[in-house]
Each structure stands twice: as C-alpha cells, then as structure tokens.
Amino acid sequence: MVGSIVRYGPDRILMNSSTAFHDIYDHSKPVKKSKAFATVSRFIGGQSLLTIIDKSLHHSRRRLYNSEFSPAALTSFEPIMIDHIRLFCDQLVRKTPNDHDGWTQARNVKDLCRLPRGIGSAPTNCNLAGNWVAFDIGGDFVYRQKFRTLVTEENRYLINAILALNIRGGMHAQCPKLARFYLELLWPPIDLRTFRKCVEWRRSFGEKLKGQGKATRGLFFKTLGVEDPETGKDVSFNKLLAEAQFLQVAAFETTATTLAAALFYLAHYSDAYSHLAREIRTTFAAVEEIRSGPKLNSCKYLSACIQETLRMSPTVPGAMWREAEPGGAYVDQEFIPAGYDIATSIYALHHNESYFEDSFNFSPNRWLSAGPGARLKAV
Asked: What whole-number distance in Å separates Cα of residue 376 and Cα of residue 369?
C-alpha cells in the first residue's frame, strides 16, 4: 500500500481518489471491463449489459434500453409502482390485536424481508427492509407479472435463490480463478431442489412470455420484433430474457438496500427525520399527491437524504474491475500496464475524508450547502 494505492493482487490495483475514479470509468479511457465479468454471465442466463466486455457491443446493447426508460415509459408505469408501495406501507402500519391507544405495535422492519423456510432450505434473514416490495415492482416493470412476494410465500424462493447466486457471482468476480473449480458444488449457496425449481421456473416462464401478446409482456419485452442493433435482425427472445433477468436481479436488491439504509439512518438521526417529515407534510396536502412532478421535484431535502443514503451505503460498494487495454493506461498519473485490473471502491471513496468531512455521519445538509457542494460535484 502506497498512499491511496493498494496492490490488491499480483495484477490488480485499487486506487482511492476521485481522479482515479474518472480515469477508470470514463468510457473514452483506454480501459475495458475486466475478464472477471465473464464469470457472471452464466448466473443470469447469458451475456447482458452488465457482463459485455466489448465497448462497441456494449454501446449497441444499451440502445435496447432507450424506449423502456424514457420519461413516457416511466410515467406510464408509475401508477403500478404506487400500488406496490401502498401495499408495502399497509404492511408497515397494519393493525394487530396488541395495538393500543392509537399506536400500532412496534415491529422490526426486517421482518418484511425474512424469507420463510423454503424447499429444503433454512430461513434466511436478508436484513433488507424492501426485498419483497422491490422484487414485486421489478417483476411488474420487467415482465408485467405479479409475483406478490409481499403478501404470499409462493414465489419468495426466487429471492432466496437470487441472493445466494449474487454471493457466488460476487465471489467469482473478485477471484475469477475460483470459477473454474466449481467450489459451489461442495458448498452450494442453495439446496439442489430449490436450484432445480428455479431452472424449471426460468424455462416455463420464458415459454409463457413467448406466448403472450405484446401488450401484456411488460415494458421490456415490447422490444420483441424490433431490429437488433447488433445483428440487424429482430431482437432474439433469449437475449431479451438475459437482459430482463439481469434487470430483475440488479433492480430489486439495489432498491431494497437503499430503502433499508434510508429507513435506518432516518430512525437514528432524529433531526434529519424531523426536517424531512416537515418538508413532505408542508409540500403535499394528502398522500395521494405524492407522485412525480413539480411538487416532488421541489423536495430538495428528500433528494439530499437519498443522496446521503447512497453515499453512506452504496448499493455496489466493492471494486468494479476494469482492465488496461494494449498500451496501458494512466490512472491518476500512475501508469497501469496492459492486462492489469484497476478499480476504485465506491464505499472507500465515499468515506474518504478528503472529499467528505465527518464521512461516517449521516448529514443530508452536505448536499445542500454551496461550499462543500462544489467539491462534491467534483467527486
């Protein structure tokens, strides 16, 4: 270790500076995704936007997402998302026989994401307040399917399996050579019966989607039948299924992590909670008014709370490795030889006191003040 540089492995280097971050992850720099991403492909049924290493191929694949994440598409989905959020809020404040004097019984929010004993599997406590609601929203957005994990146990085994496979995929991404030994067969993250059920679900669900009309497939699968920018032919179903499964995996856990972290910090920092509650209650006259638009955009402190939550608890805190291309690359004025992996840890960068004073303190005001704001923008 030298200053902000750490030799993570024989051909891997971590750097903890904002300059290094931009030098590594700027699309125009002479770096590309590490070969480690190839080990993740098999967990999501094929190559996706996450795992494609070739830059030009990655750019063309991104075009598949354009219509699905347009303002019009997101606005059309908002009423469906709000229905899921209402159900989640009802679960949080539901009345029980032990309620008294107008107060509901105190409950641990993590109970909403405690996975029941599944098919031969032990109960798993995810410690994420919104796993179920995030999974339901993602399923509705990607597939236009009602998984209803918030109210029934029927499909919760899918969340259990995804979380287990994320652990395995993350391990292989950090140490790709382990992937060739299939050590997970010795210590499987999920039992074989559950794994087989997931494989069968993927097959049968894919067939079900193929047989549905375009209007009922969900936003993402409406691109079936359009020209694939990579091939000039119609987009294949298997390609879309791999992308959709990547979205489902990526969206639910990151959303749930952020929701859990925000609830945690607001519960522990009473001043921030009071400020946020006052802003929301003075901006909106009723719960039904809370939706995208000018009023929501005016809630600057709410935006600051989200920003500070993401700073304190980034959803992907580890190293997202990039490989120096032929000829090498300069990162924060340091030469990185071709073939070496280089990365920054966003968690370490977010807690670097050079950029964020009192970095382990939840302080949404740091995103509102003019002085530090300029420095944060530079990060």
From this structure: 10
